[in-house]
Every structure is written in structure tokens, then in C-alpha cells.
Automatic annotation (TrEMBL):
Protein name according to UniProt: Methyltransferase family protein
CDD domains referenced in this protein's UniProt entry, alphabetically: AdoMet_MTases (cd02440)
Start and end residues of each Methyltransferase domain: 67-160
Keywords associated with the record: Methyltransferase, Transferase
Record organism: Paenibacillus barcinonensis
SUPFAM superfamilies membership: S-adenosyl-L-methionine-dependent methyltransferases (SSF53335)
Amino acid sequence: MSFFRTLHRRAKEEELMDDFSTGGEELHEALRHLRRLNKLFAASGPTLSGVAKLWKSIGMPEKLTLMDVGAGSGDVNKRLLRWAKKQGIDMRITLVDMTEEACQEARQLFQNEPRIRVQRADLTTLPDASADIVTGSQFIHHFEGEQLVNMVGHMLRVSRYGVVINDIHRHTVSYKAVWITTRLISRNRYIRHDGPLSVAKGFTSQDWQELRQRLNHETMTYEWKPLFRFSVVIPQQEGGIT
């Protein structure tokens, strides 16, 4: 993955993690290193911001169920659990991923956390209204075109109240920062290849506007958050949120 790359359009190459025929210990290592990257780049912030926004819009219920799809290790949810405890919310989170390696890492990470359940599954096969809120962190940049629209549609179908998306801002600064950081902290080929590519497959404000139009969902909102991420909220209920 070249340090010098044009980012005018979203990259179309597949990430190594998109190949489900590979994995094993190398993928386990990549997931552990990804947790370090998530911590360095404050990956949990946009998810928390979006969930808090949507929670307030539905009347701040005392009980809340979340489903994090494409969750990987699910580490961004640690901050959500702390926030829920502080707010007095009885929150239960289901972490969903298609790979056994990710599910194993999530089970290990949350082995002493009864509020977390791990499920190996494909988003497209999940039942309707499985959780109050469906979240996806660094998940939908894996898709483009009609497939992107369909996957967000499935997230909406699986949620009762709406969807929160946390994904990467496609920008030269974020690309170079991730390129350098991945090479400083890891020799893992998944991390070195997929880290920068994730930024190249990320989004700009124009991309979110186009997605809102294609979804025909005027109540969808998006906000830029540190560090070079977007928090996107797509409410299920009529009227949306402000």
C-alpha cells in the first residue's frame, strides 16, 4: 500500500479481511493490533455520540439493546458500557461477526462482562427488529454501490429505532497517519495492508449525502468527529432527530 495515493474517489480494492478463506493466528493477531489502533485513533467516540443522540430522541429509555454488526473484537463497546452505567441504563449488547476468529477475540475480551453476548452470523440473515439500535464501526466502508445501500438497509431492518454508523473520513491526513502508525506498531500484513486501505475506502460529506439520497432517508444525519471519523445516525421513527 503506497504512502502516496490519490483519494478523490473511494478505493475499490478488497481488504485482506474480506477474504473469509484465510484467517487463523494471523487474523487473531491483526484483531489484537486493531484494538491498539482503535484506542490510538479514538475509534469509540463517534459510536458513543451517535448512540447517545438516538437514545435521547427515543425518550431516554432505562433499558436499551444494541447489536454491533461486523463487530470484530467489539472493543469500541467498552466505552458504551461505561456510559450506560453512568446514565443508569440497563444496556445489553450483541456483538455480531462472520468470522470465528473475531468471535473468539470478542468472547475473550468480554469474558467477565454479562452485558455482552457474542454471535457468529451474517447481517443479512438476522431477524427483523433484533435490537433497539444497530451499530456498525468501520463496517460499511467494506461495501460500495448497490451493496452498500443494501447493507445499510439490512441494518435498518434489524433495528427497532435506528442505526448508528461510525466510519472513516477519507482524507490525506488520516491516510498518511494510519499508513505511518500501522508500520510503527505492527508487522502484521492485515494491519499494514488493510489499515491504510480502510481510509482510502472511507467517506466524505458528499458520499454521505449521496447515500442519504439513495436510501431516500431525509432524517439521516452525519457529523465529523475526531480523529477523522464520521458519526452517522439514521433514525427509524418518523420525524427524525435534530
